[in-house]
From TrEMBL:
SUPFAM superfamilies attached to this UniProt entry: Metalloproteases ('zincins'), catalytic domain (SSF55486)
Record's protein name: Uncharacterized protein
Protein's UniProt keywords contain Transmembrane: no
Domain called Oligopeptidase A N-terminal: residue spans: 71-185
Key word Hydrolase present: yes
Coiled-coil spans in chain: none
Cofactor(s) this protein cannot do without: Zn(2+)
Peptidase M3A/M3B catalytic domain boundaries: 259-338
Organism: Cryptotermes secundus
Length: 353
């Protein structure tokens, strides 16, 4: 027994001794999309050939132009670090717009394709493309060299009114990204933005699960006899036979809205409407309630606004909105309320009076 114990110790030590030491590391490089010389998404003459498009072509085109744009931003940053610009439009902003045009064009066409043909552009594929394009386009607003160049150019009195607005846009977006903060506050802002993204993802995920959980089956043809054929196709298992049930009602927006519009049964409409409005609430599945995420988002957004020097998240949000300030929004609502009250009194008054 003692020999056996000693033998196990020797074997264990031998295993430790022969275990190789790995001190290296692996670097994962981003996938470089293939060139698309005949990209139908960038057709300049006439309408793009939608029939020649595919999910792979759309995804590859957007990823390629997103990578090209990111490379252009990094190149401009290197140039600014070596030699400060004397003409911010010729050296920075014009090249950014030129390199961003292909990405904007393909991204916009992919959006249109998603809204018009979800079979060719499924939701999950579009979300990945959209997030990649949005992340790449936002890179120019989170670049410190570009922000510094625009901030210095903003004091130039020789700029036209249009140029001042463009430079002001870059300066504002940079400030909202924390480029005007010290390192400690910028780190706190980055952590806060990361937490906001996580809470938003959890919120959206629960809404999606709650949406998928609800189904209502209709077997009575008299309920759906006045439904348009395209709506029935979305509600049956086999779209080639829209008049053969059962018909399934879901909370997906394209089905839900049409069902409320055409369903003649009031109780059935009420049931579906109630299920839609109570998604991810405490009145439905407690495991999917979103109230805690909402409160966390409110707290994080208030903290984000305070780090950037704003009184509230609403005040910060208005910086990039047409209204411009919370006070103007409140004034508009007050004016609408006054007019709406007069209209309500008129519509509810006795016609014979």
């Amino acid at each position: 027994m003692a020999l056996s114990f000693i033998g196990r110790i020797i074997c264990a030590r031998r295993n430790i001794l022969i275990t190789p030491c790995r001190s290296g590391y692996i670097v994962l490089l981003p996938e470089v999309p293939t060139d698309v010389p005949d990209d139908p998404l960038l057709k300049t003459q006439g309408i793009p050939e939608i029939s020649s498009l595919s999910t792979e072509k759309c995804s590859s085109a957007v990823r390629k132009y997103a990578l090209d744009f990111e490379s252009a931003v990094w190149k401009i940053e290197d140039q600014l670090k070596e030699n400060p610009t004397q003409n911010v439009f010729a050296d920075v902003l014009d090249p950014l717009e030129k390199h961003g045009a292909p990405l904007d064009t393909t991204w916009g066409l992919v959006k249109t394709l998603y809204l018009t043909n979800k079979d060719l552009m499924p939701v999950r594929v579009y979300v990945n493309i959209h997030n990649k394009a949005r992340q790449s386009r936002a890179l120019k607003f989170s670049s410190e060299p570009i922000y510094t160049a625009c901030k210095e150019a903003s004091v130039n009195n020789d700029l036209t009114e249009e140029q001042k607005r463009v430079v002001g846009k870059y300066t504002l977006e940079g400030r909202l990204n924390g480029l005007g903060l010290d390192s400690a506050r910028r780190l706190k802002l980055q952590q806060t933005l990361k937490q906001i993204t996580q809470e938003k993802t959890k919120f959206k995920s629960k809404v999606e699960v709650a949406t998928k959980n609800f189904q209502h089956k209709i077997e009575d043809h008299s309920i759906v006899r006045d439904f348009p054929e395209d709506v029935l196709r979305m509600m049956v298992s086999h779209s080639s036979q829209p008049n053969q049930g059962p018909w399934k009602v879901t909370l997906n927006t394209h089905v839900y809205s049409k069902f409320l519009e055409y369903c003649p049964d009031r109780d059935m409409r009420w049931n579906v409407w109630q299920a839609y409005t109570r998604r991810a609430s405490k009145y439905a599945d407690p495991n999917l309630e979103n109230s805690t995420h909402l409160e966390e988002l409110r707290y994080l957004r208030r903290y984000q606004a305070s780090l950037l020097g704003f009184e509230s998240f609403a005040a910060m949000s208005m910086e990039t909105k047409m209204a411009g300030s919370v006070e103007k929004v409140k004034t508009m609502i007050t004016s609408l309320l006054a007019r709406g009250t007069l209209g309500l009194k008129h519509s509810t008054s006795d016609p014979g009076s």
